Amino acid sequence: MVRYKGHVEALLPVFPLATEIGPRAHLRIGGCDTVEMAAQFGTPLYVFDEFTLRTKCRELRREFTSRYPNSLIIYASKAFTNPALAAILAEEGMGLDVVSGGELAVAQRVKFPARDVYFHGNNKTREEMEQALDFGIGRVVVDGFHELQLLNEVARQNNTNQDILLRISPGVDPHTHAHITTGVLDSKFGFPLANGQAEEALRQALCTSNLNLVGLHCHIGSQVFETEPYRRAVEVMLRFAAEMRRKHGFELMEFSPGGGFGVQYMHDAPAPPIARYAEVIISAVLELSRELGLTPPKLIVEPGRSVVAQAGVALYTVGSIKDIPEVRKYVSLDGGMGDNIRPALYDARYEAVVANKADAPARERVTLAGRFCESGDVLVKDAMLPAVEPGNIVAIPVSGAYALTMASNYNNVPRPAIVLVRDGAARLIRRRETYEDMMARERV
Ligand SMILES: Cc1ncc(COP(=O)(O)O)c(C=O)c1O
Fold first, then answer.
1. pLDDT tens-digit series, residues 34-70
2. Going by DSSP bridges, is the β-strand pair 312-324/393-396 parallel, antiparallel, or unpaired?
3. Active site residues
C-alpha cells in the first residue's frame, strides 16, 4: 500500500535543511516542534535554522575559494542582520557588507573583524562615514561624486588613508524584477560606465589626498537566475580596468561582481547551484585577466539572500476565514505585509504549509491574507492546503531574506520575535516588540 505523504513532503526542499515531520504530524525545524515554538514564543514568529545558515556559508566559501583561493565572501547584511547572526558569520569566516550606520552598529556590537567589513550605500552621511572610519572599516565602496569628496574630507580630518572601491554601473541587465535591478544605466547606484562618469570618478579618486583606490565593484541585481549576466559584467569591468591602467596607471587589486545569486522559493523553480555562479564568475575573471595582462585581483562576492533565505521560516496563526463561494476563500494570518512586504512590493511568491497538519493532503485552494489594512496585503495567493481552521499554524518557508529587514510598524503592529534553532533547542535572538517599545519614542 502506498502511504500518502501529505502536503508538506513535496515542499521539504524549500524548507531549512534540518526540517522533518515529527510526532503528531507537526513540522519540525532543527529538531524543534514548530507548533510548540508558536505556543511558547507567540506568532508571528521567525525561525532561523543554524545548521542551514552555517551550511550555506561553508558552501559559498568552498565553491569560491576552492576555485580561486584569493576570494572573500562578504554577507550582505541588508538581507537580514542582528548580532546573533553576525556572530555566526564571523565564526564561519565570512566578511560583511553594510549599508548604514545601523548595520555597521551590529558589526561593532559583535566586534566583527573590521578589515572584512565593506561599507556600501548611495547616500552615506558624514556621521556614518565618521562611524565607519572610527571603526577602522576595511573598505568604503564609493557610490557618487559627492561621497568621494566628503569621504576624502572625513578621512583627512581623521588622519587616515581609507581604502576604497568604486561602485560602477556596468550597463548589464540581469533580467530580474525592475525593483531589484541595479547595474543598468538608469539606476541610482554607482558611476555609469557608458557616459564616462566611471572614468571621471576613477581619475578624481586617484587624485584625492586621503583615499586609496584599491578596486572596482558592481552589483547587477538580486534574485538573478541567469549566470551569463555575471560573465558579461566581469568582462565589462575588467576591460574597463585594463583601459584605466593604460590611461591613468590604475592597478586593480580587488574586484567585486556583487551578490544577487538566485534562491528557490517555489517547489517547481529551482535556482542554479552556487557552484555554477562560482564557475562562471571565476572562469571569466581568469580568462579576462590573462587576455588583458592583469594580475588576477582579489575577488569579493556579496551574497545576502543565498545565505539566509532558506534558513528562515515564518510561523503565523490562522484567525478569520472568509469564504466567498465560487470566488475565493480568504484565510487571514496574524502577520503579513508588516513583517514581509515582498509579495506586496514585487509580487514575490511563496509556498505555505499547515505546520500542525503536516501529513494531511492538500485539498483546498485558499488565499493567505495578512492582517494589515491594505487589500494588497496578501502573503500567498492560491495556496493548496489541507482544510484550515482558526488556531492552525501556517509556516511560510524561504522567509529568511528581505522580510524582517523591511518590516514596519504599519497599523502600529509590533514586529515579530525571532528564534534560532539548533539540535532541538530554540534560542530567542530577538524578543517580540511591545507597545512600550513603540511608545518609548513618542512625546505628547
Ligand atoms: C551592493 C549589493 N551587494 C549585495 C547585495 C545582495 O544581494 P542578494 O541578497 O541578492 O545576494 C545587494 C542587494 O541588493 C547589493 O545592493
1. 999 999 999 999 999 999 999 999 999 999 999 999 9
2. antiparallel
3. 373
